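[SOLVED] Predicted holo structure with N-acetyl-L-glutamyl 5-phosphate

Edit: marking solved, answer below. Original request kept for reference. I posted the sequence and ligand SMILES and asked for the 3D complex as structure tokens.
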Amino acid sequence: MKKYVVIKCGGSVLDRLPAGFYETIADLQHTEEWQPVIVHGGGPLISELLEKQGVPTTFTDGMRVTSEGVLEVVEMVLSGSVNKKLVSSLQKAGANAFGFSGVDGCLFTTEPMYKESALGLVGKVTKVKTALIDLIASEGMVPVISPVGGDGEGTTYNINGDVAAAAVAGALNAELCFISDIAGIYIEENGQKKTVHKMTQTEAESFIQDKWITGGMIPKVRSALDGLSSGVTRVGIVNGMNASSLPDFLQGKEIGTKITADKEGYRVG
Ligand SMILES: Nc1ncnc2c1ncn2[C@@H]1O[C@H](COP(=O)(O)OP(=O)(O)O)[C@@H](O)[C@H]1O
Ligand SMILES: CC(=O)N[C@@H](CCC(=O)OP(=O)(O)O)C(=O)O
């Protein structure tokens, strides 16, 4: 039986991923061992379009403050161009893919991230209809999921891609690999930037407190930890520019940053 691996493709690298990256996913899809599922972001593209429209956009701890006007652009970019481009790139690489958002088929049950929050229409996923993912996978296709979700009563929410990926991976008891534009989480030691190969929950929280981890890395790390406590079997952050990052992660090689809930952690290289 295949094991699910949820691959979160960050907007930071989406338009720069090498062709080999998609070929790797096609190769995984054709094995008996792995079933890839993509959850993607697209933050920089959303910001670009908002800027063109003259709409100011702000972030709190890596989350975009989302008004109704912002949400319209978010949904257009994520569930429109980004999702369909990914599907097309995977098909070109030899893997059939099926793109949809958390709204479609009520894949995600969504509620506001925080009650009474200035973040506006930012949501969190409370339930994932995994049967939809199973169905697409059983047809031999790679599910490609855009992180927008509804509450079933007509309200749509902007979900951070990292948050959505962790919810999907937790529900599938999957491995979770964040593909981003950095070689892993770095910290500074003796004035030099070094990649941390392993990080525990306590270390991650203290690095956030001490502002070593900032911006978009905050939801990534917090989602990784949430994933581990909700069924994710292994989680790492790797560089998407290198097509071998994902297979190396799956083979257990020391690559990027592995986040753990236990005591083993904080190893720099
Ligand atoms: N300690 C850190 N280590 C690595 N990256 C960090 C760290 N703190 C903040 N970042 C930032 O987080 C970014 C990745 O987050 P984000 O831009 O949201 O990526 P993605 O679009 O891939 O999800 C990096 O490009 C970097 O600028
Ligand atoms: C609530 C929130 O922050 N939503 C994100 C959704 C896209 C995303 O997560 O994109 P990256 O993976 O490229 O960061 C946003 O509006 O930018």
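OP edit: Residues 10-13, 41, 43, 180-182, 185-186, 212-217 surround adenosine-5'-diphosphate (ligand 1) (CB under 6 Å). Thanks to everyone who chimed in.
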